[in-house]
Design goal:
By secondary structure, the chain is mainly alpha-helical. The chain has two domains: 210 residues, 3-Layer(aba) Sandwich (Rossmann fold); 82 residues, Tyrosyl-Transfer RNA Synthetase (Orthogonal Bundle). Helix content is 55%, strand content 7%. It is built from 13 helices and five strands. Helix 3 crosses helix 12, helix 4 packs across helix 7 and helix 7 packs across helix 8. The protein is globular, with a radius of gyration of 21 Å. Adenosine-5'-diphosphate binds next to helix 1.
Length: 321
């Protein structure tokens, strides 16, 4: 089975990215064919500082490599190093109804936030469909916020296959229930674009500040607290097994619990969890040439697969005169 997913280098990678996508991808590589890439064409829809995009792309690569993506076992590359994906995007645009794109939640959310829309933002889901279909992916591990994008990919692929013949694999989303949506420190969805993240490899002082500022309600210390509505509980739970979660919920239900006690514990939990990867990450960060080499080798392998699907798609629509 071919597993594929991508992540935007549009900021520092955070706990939501890790638990919904990165960790699962790293686990999948042990017994599946894994395709993992940094979607810098997509990041162009929000990042306009070229220096920053370059830096964030290398940073994200270092994060993945330190956390365990193994270029010997998996194909790991940067989206724009296989530029054929933009050709497939154009081909697929013609199997994409306007109404489908107009209904995209992520596009509508951005409009509601006052972002002035451009064509890149509107066409984002078509590029994402090309990302997935170009490599014949069977399964796509993502967080819940990407569910609609995956449905759009399936719609586009089905429509293309109906019009031109069976070219594309129809991919299945793989969305975990347990980490469907990780809240940020303000209780909203944790996102690079909302400034509410807890990053994987920040300085300890920054981590402390971020965790201490996770929003909690105003329940007095002497009253029981509700774990189910608490962002702090949701974040802490990411690091706990079922028993640990139950024990923490029991502490919430017992009068006398101070949120600050939980926050101080959580700082150590997060710090210690990522400790084994910190030195490795530094080694990659100090050798950007090595990281670039790994990414380019990954792009070569990705190209080989992309060429097959692109050739089939070109022939199916009649570009091979
Ligand atoms: P961001 O919103 O931070 O820019 P991306 O859109 O690049 O994140 O998402 C990368 C992956 O991480 C996707 O699979 C997405 O579903 C997942 N993801 C991002 N934020 C969260 C979150 N808060 N909770 C769960 N999954 C998330
Ligand atoms: N849109 C995805 C996100 O914001 C990123 C992405 C781009 C992606 N191309 C992809 C995810 C292909 C999975 C497969 O998270």
């Amino acid at each position: 089975m071919r597993i594929l997913s991508g992540i935007q280098p549009s900021g520092q990678l955070h706990l939501g990215n890790y638990f919904a996508m990165m960790k699962r991808m790293i686990e999948f590589q042990e017994d599946h064919e894994l395709f993992c890439f940094l979607v810098n064409y997509h990041a162009l829809t929000t990042v306009t500082d070229s220096e920053l995009l370059r830096k964030q792309t290398l940073d994200a690569a270092c994060d993945f490599l330190a956390l365990g993506i193994d270029p010997e076992k998996s194909i790991f590359w940067v989206q724009s190093d296989v530029p054929q994906v933009t050709e497939l995007t154009w081909i697929l645009s013609n199997s994409t109804p306007m109404g489908l794109l107009e209904r995209a939640h992520s596009y509508k959310d951005k409009l509601a936030k006052g972002v002035s829309p451009n064509h890149g933002l509107f066409a984002y889901p078509v590029l994402m469909a090309a990302d997935i279909l170009l490599y014949g992916a069977d399964r796509v591990p993502v967080g819940k916020d990407q569910k609609q994008h995956l449905e759009m990919t399936r719609d586009i692929a089905i429509r293309f296959n109906q019009t031109y013949g069976e070219v594309f694999v129809i991919p299945e989303p793989d969305i975990p229930d347990s980490v469907a949506l990780v809240p940020g420190i303000d209780g909203q969805k944790m996102s690079k674009s909302y400034g509410n993240t807890i990053d994987l490899f920040c300085e300890r002082g920054v981590l402390k500040k971020r965790v201490m500022s996770v929003v909690t309600d105003a329940t007095p210390i002497e009253e029981p607290k509700n774990p189910d509505t608490c962002a702090l509980f949701a974040i802490y739970s990411l690091f706990l097994d079922e028993k640990g979660r139950k024990d923490l919920a029991d502490r919430y239900h017992t009068p006398g619990l101070k949120y600050s006690t939980i926050k101080k514990e959580l700082i150590d939990v997060i710090w210690n969890y990522f400790e084994p990867y910190r030195t490795k990450r530094q080694e990659f960060a100090q050798d950007p040439e090595r990281v670039r080499r790994i990414l380019l080798q990954g792009a070569d392998k990705a190209q080989a697969v992309a060429a097959t699907y692109l050739q089939k798609a070109r022939a199916a629509v009649g570009l091979n005169y």
